[in-house]
Amino acid sequence: xxxxxxxxxxxxxxxxxxxxxIYRMLTLANYLRKKNCxxxxxxxxxxxASLVLIKKSGFPVEALPFGISRGSEIDNLADILRCHRxxxxxxxxxxxxxxxNFMGALGYNKGVILVSFNDDTKRRLVDADIIxxxxxxxxxxxxxxxxxxxxxxxxxxxxxxxxxxxxNKRRRKINKCVKRVVVCMGGADQHxxxxxxxxxxxxxxxxxxxxxIVNSNFFDKTLAQQLSDSLAHAVSFNFDVxxxxxxxxxxxxxxxxGGLVHLERMCAGVPGIAINQHCRQADLSARIMRQxxxxxxxxxNRVSLGKIFYSFNDLSQxxxxxxxxxxxxxxxxxGEGLLRIAKIxxxxxxxx
Length: 352
Fold this sequence. Notes:
The model has no long low-confidence stretch (mean pLDDT 91). This protein is 39% helix and 20% strand. The protein has two domains: 170 residues, Rossmann fold (3-Layer(aba) Sandwich), CATH 3.40.50.2000; 170 residues, Rossmann fold. It is an alpha/beta fold. It has a seven-stranded parallel sheet, sandwiched between helices. A six-stranded parallel sheet has the order 10-9-8-11-12-13, with helices on both faces. The protein is built from 13 helices and 13 strands. This is UDP-2,4-diacetamido-2,4, 6-trideoxy-beta-L-altropyranose hydrolase.
Protein backbone atom coordinates (compact mmCIF):
# COMPACT_ATOMS: atom_id res chain seq x y z
CA UNK A 1 0.00 0.00 0.00
CA UNK A 2 1.35 3.40 -1.00
CA UNK A 3 2.32 5.58 1.98
CA UNK A 4 0.16 8.65 2.46
CA UNK A 5 1.88 11.98 2.03
CA UNK A 6 2.12 14.21 5.07
CA UNK A 7 1.31 17.91 5.28
CA UNK A 8 2.66 20.01 8.15
CA UNK A 9 0.71 23.18 8.97
CA UNK A 10 2.33 26.00 10.95
CA UNK A 11 -0.42 28.29 12.27
CA UNK A 12 -1.26 30.42 15.31
CA UNK A 13 -4.38 31.78 16.96
CA UNK A 14 -4.86 33.59 20.26
CA UNK A 15 -6.56 36.56 21.90
CA UNK A 16 -4.30 39.19 20.34
CA UNK A 17 -4.49 38.09 16.69
CA UNK A 18 -7.82 36.25 16.75
CA UNK A 19 -8.68 32.70 15.71
CA UNK A 20 -9.33 33.14 11.98
CA UNK A 21 -6.02 31.59 10.90
CA ILE A 22 -6.71 28.48 13.01
CA TYR A 23 -10.25 28.13 11.68
CA ARG A 24 -9.26 28.40 8.03
CA MET A 25 -6.41 25.89 8.35
CA LEU A 26 -8.69 23.42 10.15
CA THR A 27 -11.31 23.87 7.42
CA LEU A 28 -8.70 23.15 4.75
CA ALA A 29 -7.18 20.18 6.58
CA ASN A 30 -10.57 18.63 7.32
CA TYR A 31 -11.58 18.89 3.68
CA LEU A 32 -8.29 17.47 2.36
CA ARG A 33 -8.34 14.66 4.91
CA LYS A 34 -11.83 13.70 3.80
CA LYS A 35 -11.15 13.93 0.06
CA ASN A 36 -7.53 12.77 -0.27
CA CYS A 37 -4.99 10.35 1.16
CA UNK A 38 -3.00 12.86 3.20
CA UNK A 39 -1.98 12.89 6.85
CA UNK A 40 -1.47 16.08 8.86
CA UNK A 41 0.43 17.50 11.78
CA UNK A 42 -0.12 21.00 13.13
CA UNK A 43 2.52 23.18 14.79
CA UNK A 44 1.19 26.05 16.91
CA UNK A 45 2.16 28.26 19.80
CA UNK A 46 0.77 27.02 23.09
CA UNK A 47 -2.49 28.94 23.34
CA UNK A 48 -4.96 26.61 25.07
CA ALA A 49 -7.88 27.65 22.85
CA SER A 50 -5.95 26.88 19.66
CA LEU A 51 -4.58 23.56 20.88
CA VAL A 52 -8.03 22.43 22.05
CA LEU A 53 -9.57 23.29 18.66
CA ILE A 54 -6.91 21.40 16.74
CA LYS A 55 -7.11 18.32 18.96
CA LYS A 56 -10.91 18.41 18.92
CA SER A 57 -10.72 18.15 15.12
CA GLY A 58 -8.64 14.99 15.45
CA PHE A 59 -5.26 16.32 14.31
CA PRO A 60 -1.94 15.81 16.10
CA VAL A 61 -0.28 19.04 17.18
CA GLU A 62 3.24 19.99 18.19
CA ALA A 63 3.00 22.85 20.70
CA LEU A 64 5.65 25.56 20.76
CA PRO A 65 6.15 27.66 23.93
CA PHE A 66 3.78 30.62 23.63
CA GLY A 67 6.43 33.30 24.10
CA ILE A 68 9.15 31.59 22.08
CA SER A 69 11.63 33.82 20.23
CA ARG A 70 11.90 33.59 16.46
CA GLY A 71 15.40 32.12 16.65
CA SER A 72 14.35 29.41 19.11
CA GLU A 73 11.26 28.70 17.04
CA ILE A 74 13.38 28.11 13.95
CA ASP A 75 15.55 25.66 15.93
CA ASN A 76 12.46 23.84 17.22
CA LEU A 77 10.94 23.72 13.74
CA ALA A 78 14.09 22.11 12.37
CA ASP A 79 13.72 19.27 14.89
CA ILE A 80 9.99 18.89 14.22
CA LEU A 81 10.50 18.82 10.45
CA ARG A 82 13.26 16.21 10.70
CA CYS A 83 10.94 14.07 12.82
CA HIS A 84 7.85 14.28 10.60
CA ARG A 85 9.49 14.76 7.17
CA UNK A 86 6.39 16.24 5.45
CA UNK A 87 6.01 16.45 1.68
CA UNK A 88 4.35 19.85 2.02
CA UNK A 89 4.64 22.62 4.61
CA UNK A 90 1.86 25.21 4.89
CA UNK A 91 2.49 28.48 6.72
CA UNK A 92 -0.38 30.66 7.95
CA UNK A 93 1.37 32.78 10.57
CA UNK A 94 0.78 36.51 10.55
CA UNK A 95 3.65 38.37 8.83
CA UNK A 96 6.10 35.47 9.26
CA UNK A 97 6.47 34.91 5.53
CA UNK A 98 8.43 38.20 5.45
CA UNK A 99 11.22 36.50 7.44
CA UNK A 100 13.63 34.76 5.05
CA ASN A 101 15.13 32.67 7.87
CA PHE A 102 11.70 31.44 8.95
CA MET A 103 10.64 30.55 5.41
CA GLY A 104 14.02 28.95 4.76
CA ALA A 105 13.57 26.74 7.82
CA LEU A 106 10.13 25.60 6.63
CA GLY A 107 11.52 24.67 3.23
CA TYR A 108 13.83 22.29 5.08
CA ASN A 109 14.57 19.88 2.26
CA LYS A 110 14.89 20.00 -1.50
CA GLY A 111 11.64 18.73 -2.95
CA VAL A 112 9.39 19.83 -0.09
CA ILE A 113 6.56 22.04 -1.34
CA LEU A 114 6.22 25.27 0.63
CA VAL A 115 2.83 26.98 0.71
CA SER A 116 2.13 30.40 2.22
CA PHE A 117 -1.20 31.96 3.15
CA ASN A 118 -1.25 35.70 3.75
CA ASP A 119 -3.67 38.61 3.73
CA ASP A 120 -1.46 41.24 2.13
CA THR A 121 -3.15 44.24 0.58
CA LYS A 122 -0.26 45.09 -1.77
CA ARG A 123 2.12 43.25 -4.09
CA ARG A 124 4.76 41.35 -2.15
CA LEU A 125 6.88 38.44 -3.32
CA VAL A 126 7.16 35.50 -0.92
CA ASP A 127 9.87 32.84 -0.78
CA ALA A 128 7.51 29.90 -1.31
CA ASP A 129 6.31 27.63 -4.11
CA ILE A 130 2.60 28.42 -3.81
CA ILE A 131 1.18 31.62 -2.33
CA UNK A 132 -2.47 32.30 -1.58
CA UNK A 133 -3.19 35.99 -0.96
CA UNK A 134 -6.93 36.42 -0.68
CA UNK A 135 -7.21 40.17 -0.18
CA UNK A 136 -9.77 42.02 -2.30
CA UNK A 137 -7.19 44.43 -3.75
CA UNK A 138 -4.68 41.87 -5.06
CA UNK A 139 -4.26 41.88 -8.86
CA UNK A 140 -2.75 39.16 -11.01
CA UNK A 141 -1.13 41.64 -13.42
CA UNK A 142 1.23 42.77 -10.63
CA UNK A 143 2.79 39.32 -10.39
CA UNK A 144 4.21 38.82 -13.87
CA UNK A 145 7.78 37.79 -12.96
CA UNK A 146 7.70 35.58 -9.87
CA UNK A 147 10.62 33.20 -10.56
CA UNK A 148 8.51 30.07 -10.66
CA UNK A 149 6.38 30.76 -7.59
CA UNK A 150 2.65 30.49 -8.23
CA UNK A 151 0.40 33.22 -6.83
CA UNK A 152 -3.35 32.77 -6.37
CA UNK A 153 -5.00 36.07 -5.56
CA UNK A 154 -8.25 37.60 -4.39
CA UNK A 155 -11.54 36.46 -2.90
CA UNK A 156 -11.64 33.41 -5.20
CA UNK A 157 -9.14 31.87 -2.76
CA UNK A 158 -10.94 32.46 0.52
CA UNK A 159 -11.27 29.36 2.68
CA UNK A 160 -14.78 28.99 4.09
CA UNK A 161 -16.63 25.98 5.47
CA UNK A 162 -18.19 23.75 2.80
CA UNK A 163 -21.68 24.74 3.91
CA UNK A 164 -21.20 28.24 2.50
CA UNK A 165 -20.99 26.91 -1.05
CA UNK A 166 -24.51 25.55 -0.69
CA UNK A 167 -25.88 28.65 1.03
CA ASN A 168 -24.38 30.92 -1.61
CA LYS A 169 -26.15 29.05 -4.41
CA ARG A 170 -29.57 29.29 -2.76
CA ARG A 171 -31.98 32.03 -3.70
CA ARG A 172 -32.22 34.15 -0.57
CA LYS A 173 -35.31 36.09 0.42
CA ILE A 174 -34.56 39.32 2.27
CA ASN A 175 -37.38 40.02 4.70
CA LYS A 176 -38.69 43.57 4.90
CA CYS A 177 -38.68 43.42 8.70
CA VAL A 178 -35.56 42.39 10.59
CA LYS A 179 -36.58 39.68 13.04
CA ARG A 180 -33.37 37.71 13.58
CA VAL A 181 -29.98 39.30 14.24
CA VAL A 182 -26.63 37.51 14.57
CA VAL A 183 -23.72 39.06 16.49
CA CYS A 184 -20.25 37.53 16.22
CA MET A 185 -17.05 39.44 16.85
CA GLY A 186 -14.76 36.63 15.78
CA GLY A 187 -13.31 33.67 17.61
CA ALA A 188 -11.47 35.76 20.21
CA ASP A 189 -13.25 39.16 20.30
CA GLN A 190 -9.91 40.82 21.06
CA HIS A 191 -11.46 44.07 22.31
CA UNK A 192 -14.52 42.63 24.11
CA UNK A 193 -17.02 44.31 21.81
CA UNK A 194 -19.87 41.81 22.14
CA UNK A 195 -21.41 43.28 25.30
CA UNK A 196 -21.08 46.83 23.94
CA UNK A 197 -22.92 45.90 20.74
CA UNK A 198 -25.72 44.13 22.59
CA UNK A 199 -26.30 47.10 24.90
CA UNK A 200 -26.35 49.45 21.91
CA UNK A 201 -28.86 47.56 19.78
CA UNK A 202 -31.02 46.76 22.82
CA UNK A 203 -31.99 50.45 22.87
CA UNK A 204 -33.84 49.91 19.58
CA UNK A 205 -37.64 49.81 19.62
CA UNK A 206 -37.59 47.27 16.78
CA UNK A 207 -38.89 43.80 17.58
CA UNK A 208 -36.09 41.26 16.99
CA UNK A 209 -34.32 38.28 18.53
CA UNK A 210 -30.56 38.14 18.73
CA UNK A 211 -28.24 35.14 18.47
CA UNK A 212 -24.70 35.68 19.76
CA ILE A 213 -21.82 33.40 18.75
CA VAL A 214 -18.86 33.32 21.15
CA ASN A 215 -15.91 31.15 22.18
CA SER A 216 -15.98 29.88 25.76
CA ASN A 217 -12.22 30.37 26.04
CA PHE A 218 -12.69 34.12 25.70
CA PHE A 219 -16.25 34.80 26.94
CA ASP A 220 -17.48 33.77 30.38
CA LYS A 221 -20.77 31.84 30.44
CA THR A 222 -21.87 33.46 33.70
CA LEU A 223 -21.34 36.90 32.16
CA ALA A 224 -23.36 35.79 29.13
CA GLN A 225 -26.30 34.82 31.33
CA GLN A 226 -26.13 38.06 33.32
CA LEU A 227 -25.98 40.08 30.12
CA SER A 228 -28.88 38.20 28.57
CA ASP A 229 -31.01 38.73 31.70
CA SER A 230 -30.30 42.47 31.67
CA LEU A 231 -31.49 43.09 28.11
CA ALA A 232 -35.01 43.86 26.91
CA HIS A 233 -34.69 41.85 23.69
CA ALA A 234 -34.46 38.07 23.60
CA VAL A 235 -30.78 37.12 23.36
CA SER A 236 -29.38 33.59 23.08
CA PHE A 237 -25.69 32.71 23.35
CA ASN A 238 -24.17 29.86 21.35
CA PHE A 239 -20.73 28.73 22.46
CA ASP A 240 -18.00 27.00 20.45
CA VAL A 241 -19.96 26.34 17.26
CA UNK A 242 -18.17 24.56 14.43
CA UNK A 243 -19.74 26.77 11.76
CA UNK A 244 -21.91 29.87 11.63
CA UNK A 245 -23.52 28.77 8.36
CA UNK A 246 -26.78 27.63 9.97
CA UNK A 247 -27.02 30.84 12.00
CA UNK A 248 -26.47 33.01 8.94
CA UNK A 249 -29.02 30.99 6.98
CA UNK A 250 -31.66 32.13 9.50
CA UNK A 251 -30.46 35.72 9.95
CA UNK A 252 -31.97 38.90 8.55
CA UNK A 253 -29.00 41.03 9.59
CA UNK A 254 -25.61 40.47 11.24
CA UNK A 255 -23.08 42.54 13.15
CA UNK A 256 -19.60 41.06 12.91
CA UNK A 257 -15.93 41.84 13.21
CA GLY A 258 -14.11 42.58 9.98
CA GLY A 259 -12.29 39.26 9.70
CA LEU A 260 -13.25 35.80 8.48
CA VAL A 261 -16.76 35.96 9.93
CA HIS A 262 -17.41 39.11 7.89
CA LEU A 263 -16.60 37.25 4.68
CA GLU A 264 -18.76 34.30 5.74
CA ARG A 265 -21.68 36.67 6.25
CA MET A 266 -21.21 38.10 2.76
CA CYS A 267 -21.04 34.65 1.18
CA ALA A 268 -24.30 33.69 2.91
CA GLY A 269 -26.03 36.77 1.51
CA VAL A 270 -26.72 38.40 4.87
CA PRO A 271 -26.68 42.20 4.99
CA GLY A 272 -24.78 43.62 7.91
CA ILE A 273 -22.44 45.85 9.83
CA ALA A 274 -18.69 45.48 10.36
CA ILE A 275 -16.84 46.74 13.46
CA ASN A 276 -13.15 46.08 13.11
CA GLN A 277 -10.79 44.63 15.71
CA HIS A 278 -7.60 45.95 14.08
CA CYS A 279 -6.32 48.12 11.24
CA ARG A 280 -6.07 45.35 8.62
CA GLN A 281 -9.73 44.51 9.15
CA ALA A 282 -10.66 48.19 8.96
CA ASP A 283 -8.83 48.60 5.65
CA LEU A 284 -10.57 45.59 4.11
CA SER A 285 -14.02 46.53 5.44
CA ALA A 286 -13.71 50.04 4.02
CA ARG A 287 -13.00 48.60 0.58
CA ILE A 288 -15.87 46.13 0.87
CA MET A 289 -18.18 49.00 1.81
CA ARG A 290 -17.14 50.84 -1.36
CA GLN A 291 -18.24 47.72 -3.26
CA UNK A 292 -21.66 47.96 -1.56
CA UNK A 293 -21.55 44.73 0.46
CA UNK A 294 -21.31 46.03 4.03
CA UNK A 295 -21.86 48.97 6.36
CA UNK A 296 -18.43 49.61 7.84
CA UNK A 297 -18.32 51.50 11.15
CA UNK A 298 -14.53 51.62 11.30
CA UNK A 299 -12.03 50.66 13.96
CA UNK A 300 -13.39 49.46 17.32
CA ASN A 301 -12.01 52.35 19.40
CA ARG A 302 -13.76 54.92 17.21
CA VAL A 303 -17.21 53.35 17.41
CA SER A 304 -19.58 54.67 20.07
CA LEU A 305 -22.73 53.09 21.46
CA GLY A 306 -24.71 55.76 19.64
CA LYS A 307 -23.05 55.03 16.30
CA ILE A 308 -23.85 51.32 16.66
CA PHE A 309 -27.45 52.05 17.67
CA TYR A 310 -28.23 54.50 14.84
CA SER A 311 -26.44 52.42 12.21
CA PHE A 312 -28.32 49.29 13.28
CA ASN A 313 -31.68 51.06 13.33
CA ASP A 314 -31.14 52.77 9.99
CA LEU A 315 -29.97 49.62 8.19
CA SER A 316 -32.75 47.51 9.70
CA GLN A 317 -35.30 49.91 8.23
CA UNK A 318 -33.60 50.36 4.85
CA UNK A 319 -34.92 47.36 2.93
CA UNK A 320 -33.54 48.33 -0.53
CA UNK A 321 -30.03 48.79 0.89
CA UNK A 322 -30.15 45.42 2.65
CA UNK A 323 -31.19 43.73 -0.60
CA UNK A 324 -28.28 45.35 -2.48
CA UNK A 325 -25.83 44.33 0.26
CA UNK A 326 -27.00 40.73 0.19
CA UNK A 327 -26.66 40.45 -3.59
CA UNK A 328 -23.26 42.13 -3.72
CA UNK A 329 -21.86 40.05 -0.87
CA UNK A 330 -22.73 36.81 -2.64
CA UNK A 331 -21.19 38.11 -5.86
CA UNK A 332 -17.90 38.97 -4.17
CA UNK A 333 -17.57 35.73 -2.16
CA UNK A 334 -18.87 32.60 -3.88
CA GLY A 335 -17.69 30.15 -1.18
CA GLU A 336 -15.76 27.92 -3.59
CA GLY A 337 -12.26 28.98 -2.59
CA LEU A 338 -11.87 25.81 -0.54
CA LEU A 339 -12.44 23.67 -3.64
CA ARG A 340 -10.00 25.72 -5.72
CA ILE A 341 -7.26 25.56 -3.10
CA ALA A 342 -7.77 21.85 -2.42
CA LYS A 343 -7.44 21.13 -6.14
CA ILE A 344 -4.18 23.12 -6.35
CA UNK A 345 -2.69 21.39 -3.31
CA UNK A 346 -3.78 17.96 -4.47
CA UNK A 347 -2.22 18.55 -7.90
CA UNK A 348 1.02 19.83 -6.36
CA UNK A 349 1.31 16.61 -4.36
CA UNK A 350 0.83 14.43 -7.40
CA UNK A 351 -2.92 13.93 -7.31
CA UNK A 352 -5.35 14.32 -10.16
